[in-house]
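Supplementary Data S3. Sequence and structure tokens for construct A.
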Amino acid sequence: MASIKSLSMETAVELLNLKKVAIEHQKINDISKTLPSFSSKLKILIYLKYSRHLDIE
């Protein structure tokens, strides 16, 4: 990989921006992997909370 010194300033800034975007995408992917399980747990908790207030026979 080329060293930063040999790159133009614009190219270096562009690479840094791409790296930031890649990191953000990784964070979003990590979060979205945990969402389905979190979502289903939340639904169960809401169901349990409200089922106590209802007269279910």
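Construct B, processed identically:
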Amino acid sequence: MLVVDQVKEFKISYDAELQTLNDQFEATSQRLEDLTLEERFIQEQELVKAIEKRVLSGDMTEEKALRRKLEKIQSEKLTLAEEVTVLGAVIPRFKQEKFEAIKELTRLFQEEKRMVEDTAYKRMMKDKKVYEESIIKEAESLHQYRKADVDLQLIEYEAGQRQSIFSDLVVRSAAIETDAYRFGGVYLPLEMKDIIRLIKNC
């Protein structure tokens, strides 16, 4: 298996494990927050009325039930607070452990990356040479027609029908891509920005 594929698998596993820890931390924190609000409501609202009822009527049923409920809430809050503390320490430790775990993988990845880069750029240079050679070969017919054109002009010149002879080979390729429409869509140059765009696929 290529190292790059190992990196992909490691990252998938890392993301899944970290997501599980984060979800657990968030769910526990949310439950703790909800219980705190419920506890406050019972203490500030319901328990006050229950105590008033006991004082006025002697009925302690509601007060006892609320106090039992508060005890359960406080017990659960204590457990949840411990979980939040533990998870708060586990998550950064998990990240550090994974960092330690990828040290050797990172070294192997960088080696493989350099080899892939070297190969890719060598192939690009080879393809560039093929491209240049293709332009030179295709241009042979253009030179043939330029010579014939000059021959015709020369005859016209000698017959007094021309005042000069134009012997330069006109390159009918746009200098910039946006002008290609003026040359039948032909744009041959590859500028650095084009190379970057092609390599980065952007």
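Residues 3-101 form one domain. The CA atoms of residues 117 and 123 lie 10 Å apart.
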